[in-house]
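Worked example 2:
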Amino acid sequence: MQKKPIHRRDFIKKTGLLTAGLAAVQFPAWSRYVFAPGYPLHNIPERKNIDPAWIKSLYDRGEATAYYKSKNELKYIGMPVGGLHAGTVYAGGDGRLWLWQIYNETFEGSHEGIESKAVKWNDGTSERTIQARDGSAYIEPAIANNLRVLEQGFAVKVVVDGKTFIKELNEDQWDEIIFKPAYPIATVEYKSKDFPVAVSLKIYPPFIPLDAENSALPATILRLTVNNSTNSPIPVSVLGWMENGANKLSGKEGTGKRVNTVQKTSEATSVFSSFDTANEALKKTQDYGTMCFTLHKDNAKGIANISPWPVTEQHFELPVMESASADAPEKLVSGIFIKQDLAPGKSFTADYSISWHFNNPHPKLKNLVKDAEGGFHYGARFKDAREVSQYLDTNFEKLGTITELWSATWNNSTLPQWFLERTFVNIGTLATANTYRFADGRFWSWEGVGACPGTCTHVWQYAHSVARIFPELERDLRQRVDLGVGFKEDTGAILFRGEDETHPAIDGQAGTILRFYREHQMSADNTFLQANWPKIKKAVQFMLTQDKNGDGMTDSPMENTLDAVWEGEIAWIVGLCIAAASAAHAMAVEMNDQPFANVCAQYVAKGSKNMEQELFNGEYFIHRPDAVKGRKELGSYNTCHIDQVYGQSWAFQVGLPRIISKEKSTSALKALWKYNFTTDVGPYIKTHTGGRPYALPGEGGMIMNTNPHNEPKPYGENTTWQLGYFHECMSGFEHQVAAHLMAEGMVDESLILTRVIHERYHAAKRNPFNEIECSDHYARAMASYGTFITACGFEYHGPKAYIRFAPKWNSTNFKAPFTTAEGWGTYTQRLSGAKQTHNLELKYGKLELKDIVLENIAGGKVSSVAVTLGAVHVPANLKQESNTLLLSFNKKITITKNQTLNIIFS
């Protein structure tokens, strides 16, 4: 029997007037609550008092970010510079590599985070112990100099007018060091008055969007450049060194010896590092493997052992040593040396690389994921680090050129430099110990480094960047896990941690349905959808049946991303399911399954109507309690929740029709801005204790849940430890809201919110490349890419050969990168008088198009269109609907690498 609808006035009357303070409860160690007799008052100011000039500056193109030694901005910097799923190797602020979390030791409960330490934090009422999984690296960021696991570096020697100058590339030896991040490439510049040449170091892994194989090499490239800025020719010598890291953790006294062997080819000089042991157990340890240090030039000299330290002039004169060994645990450091005479004004470049191969997953990981038993994907491709290095050498120019092409393409934009950096940088999570790819090709992840296993659906559904940059990984995850080991054939439920879970999460189920549609859109044809439609349909049917009374608003108690089972009808979950049903409708139409398409359409229509009527309180969307249980269990109820219109945010990401009216959607976002956003979280977290420290006093952010009307017991009668989440700033959720703000035209607010996250992660305070939630490099933070998508007004549907752009600002002079199923490039649009020009310039791969949707930026009636592909005229049909221009071709056109599709409207 259907429940009688409860309208807003009656709902507030019945559920809003609760009494007494919060009951005494027991909480986990990470969350020691101290509550006042009554619930603390809401204390976020409605007026934000933000300087208009500062807001205006957020739109400026600006300069690329740079961090300086002179400003004390280098010590926390750790940019991931290894290949995808190959562990974590950081480039530090002075160019030296650190951390070296490549030994497969990361595991929940034993080695979480990038630095497994606990710190003390005063939350405003008491001192608490914060573990790695709860944000210790936010309170006390890891410092590069404390985690230099392996000896590695460079030194440059020059002789000018008979005088010898030698400097190592480390912070202590230079007047100024400038670190310029442009993920995946870091450029480090070294300057000193007492050094006569200019030196720079470029550090990056091969990184090629749409090419997950070549982007997943366990390797780092280090390109050292010396420029002769003197007026005389000078001899330049470069020495690079690398410690043998084999069995670095397990190589104790008496276990074996480290061995370095110099190997030369016509193109390169390498030092192959291994561990020689008769101990079979040691060969099964996580750090048993090999490394290879290579200079990709033919006239270099390899030296198997260059100890001791520090570097002196004698190191540049060491005799050739083809092999060397050292009994564990003694260090063994190799070097590769090259010398060249450099004419005035000329540059010399030395291309080094470091590769590694540690193919023994953590034993507990093998128990957790059966696929881990076969080792890693790179282990299946290469037998040791030498083979990785050889592959790099054979393909060096191609890999480096395309990586730099992508970097140039991404940054060649009219969008602000800081915005491009913050919305893209979290893709670096893939190049940390947070993600794995096993020998059979399966992709798998923690939520954050070493914490919460199973590529969790209710976390990863927020992470938009992987699907746009490496779509094959997401497609494989959908098929192999969500519709494979994590799929319940009898019900259609998707286990939210794959085989590591026994039940679904409702938000994970809905979000994964939306991801099915996104992965279909990011495919070149409909093969993915056709192959998986029967199971996708079953997954949708499971979601639809969670609406017990048939009103289009799911109401079955089920776990969600806030780790609790909530009762009743919850706006953010209701809306997410409506969006998922809308995606299912679109897929059903494409599959010619009209009866099911009708079922989904009815659910969407009914759900959208009832959500707006029953769950909107006149200002924002709420959580209506279960009619029988009331507000007994934990929930958000009448509070202002960060994800309340998340379903509409998701709909924008995949070009679905609106599921919530613009009026009510923007009202909800304005309420979040009014009640949840603050330029200083300090006063709030001092009174609302128990949350984890992901934003500190003096920093801005958007609080997860607030109680703007100061209701008693706002989160229910029986509050539990999960209540701590409500008082936090978690960047993944904030990025989701920023993306939605941008899509709805609230551009100022979107940029402000994104910028305060960016400033929370400024290098003067902590690592700019590590957005933290439950542990380090948290996957949900990859939601940041969604803000880039909505800033461009980008939509794409590969099988339909459809693309759309509608920039949110600078529409008369806009340029930005784009990625599609098979290619990527640069989109531009410009207005000159009454003529507007749109260009799609392809830099990589190919792009097939049948329909293009653009904006009429000139205004008025468009009378003609001219389309050319290169020099060839392309016939096109034009249709104008208000301010939208729809361009269609009689048959698909194909843009290939280095071609430009030029469109001129007059």
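The first helix runs from residue 8 to 15. Residues 1-37 have pLDDT under 50 and may be disordered.
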